[in-house]
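Final report, closing paragraph on structural work. Over the funding period we assembled a curated collection of sequence-structure pairs, and we close with a single example.
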Amino acid sequence: MPRIVTEVNAPGGSSVPHGRTPHVPDPPDEVFRLSPTTAHRTALAAALVAPLLLPLWAAGPARAHGAPTDPVSRVAACSPEGGERAESAACRAAVAANGAPFTAWDNLRVANVGGRDRQRIPDGKLCSGGLPAYRGLDLARADWPATRVTPGGALPMTYVSTIPHAGTFRVYLTEPGYDPARPLTWSGLPEKPFAEVTDPALADGAYRFRVTLPSDRSGRHVLYTVWQNSGTPDTYYSCSDVVFPEEEPAATAHTPAAHTPAAGTPAAGTPAATAPGPSGTPGARATATASSGPSAPLFAGGAVGVLVLTGGAALVLRLRRR
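Its predicted structure, as stored:
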């Protein structure tokens, strides 16, 4: 193979002038051969380093994909980018259970699921996808950061994504009677999602689509989103806590019962009797009566009679004196 050498040192320490190409003998073949010991050591080092590099190679091309931010998912709320939500008691407990912060909040994915979610993701570990690095998301609590929603209403969803992927979003909602104090299991979700969206457009770094919520929920629930990629073997899992208005007790029509007078109680339209008080004075009336009731004419008639009698007696006395 021809070589161009501008300046080399001669064996005796002298240099070869510029522009001349000295004859350089080809190195012996054994220089390019590894001794059996060196070859063995090289192979051993490669075998030891390869397992350490393999996770980096596998995760490198597929890292940083996405997670729901509206309604906010647990992993996004509790990430270092979660703001005030990350300081909530639930998020602090989740990070403590993890032993590390949710820095890779957009990388909660499981490979080669192929739609067999219920077979691959264990009960009680739905929010973490069964991944130990996200185990804090599975804590059964009723104080996760949540989004208020309306039964039967349209819910706009935002799924932030840093790398676009073709795929289908399947959205589930926990069954009526869900208890947030118990771990989330597949039996707590309907068999089929209530919404399914395939290949929505990625705009401004997020997938945006609308779903219609079931109308028979109240109180706290979990919106469970499964994003199955069709361009990669990965499936992403996320839990978003939502709160519906509490169900108010049904109002019952009140029909007043017919009033039957008790014994000794005057019927309607009759003057109420008075009971003597402790000192013989009339007590309070059970039913209010007007001051011009039946007793007033009686009193007025008696007074007139007395006046008539008095006048007659005076007239008789005058006649006798004459």
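Residues 6 and 18 are 6 Å apart (CA to CA). DSSP finds five helices and ten strands in the chain. We thank the funder for supporting this effort.
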